[in-house]
Amino acid sequence: MTNKNVDANKAEGLPVPAELKAAHVGLDGAEPPRFHIPVNARGVALTILATVAFVFALAAAHKFFIPLVFGIFIAYTLNPLVVWLERIRIPRLFGSAFVIAAILCSALWTVNNLRDEFNSILVSLPTATQKLSRSLRHLQKDQTSTIQQMQTAATEIEKATNQATGTRPAAKPAAAEQSVFNVSQWLWAGSMGAVGFLSQALMVIFLVFFFLLSGDMFKRKLVKISGHSLSSRKITVHILDAINTSVQNYMLMLLITNVLFGLLMWIALRWIGLENAGAWAVAAGFLHIIPYFGPLLIVAATGMTAFMQFETLSSVLAVGGATMLIATVVGTFVTTWMTGKIAKMNTVAVFVSLLFWTWLWGVWGMLLGIPIIVIVKVISEYIDGWQVVAELLGE
What we know:
mainly alpha
């Protein structure tokens, strides 16, 4: 129906359909189409309050949740090894104990072989600090720092303003007494931090052992309590299988990329001639677990070490450039490809989730943020009403 038909209807006194009024622009009293989305204000308010309360509960009980989440993820990763040992007639109790013992012994063996290099790094720290302080003092003697120039300019402006207004400058507060460095307090704080870390590590080890020992008990319990209908139980099984596969593949990806990064770093640092290349390669492999920020820490640490050893700018550029090149190659061609195959999430969602979990749990949030968001995406794909979350997180 055209505008002529509308005019004919109006002339004959016939009503004009509402959809026709909305479709034609320029009619008297016509309004643009409106979309009415039903909103349950009470439900939205309760959801927001529950989410805020849950976030603050995670932040307040971080000493409980962080080891628990670590234990769950590590148990997911090691479970295929225990299952394989069960297939060759080794009981689950002995298989779980063997897997954990093998990993701990491998870590101790690596640390023991690189003990001299780590000790050399610790011994060279005072010398490196002295070299760095001498370099900074030399730079300060050559030219006045920008901060001092700004302070001088601000003082002159303040004097000119006081002379123009005829006001006297305010008396400067007395200088605060300089705090004296207390070695005993520093050692006590360091020892307490080490004890706390060891206690949490021991807690994670026991959690992993008990999770491995339980097998699929929790899976069967979750399926049992998910509902009496066959469809709800099938959905629960699919969700648990998808979470299991995603977490295992992600942890395997971390293992492959970090080992590859550490190996390439060891080759590059040995070729450049940096001392204690093995220890720095192991540290680089561990720091590479932290997304985005880990390679920056590696560049800063190895670049400072190269400057202390060679005392030339070219060596710093060589070490920093090699580290950035390896991190870019591994991150672009290995990590990105494997993450896309495993999680199929967009980079914006990954980075925002990292910011959120870093704000919530600090460094541990950096390590756990991506696996947690992978689980959220998997769950939201199977639950009605959560498909919006899956769409926002997906590619």
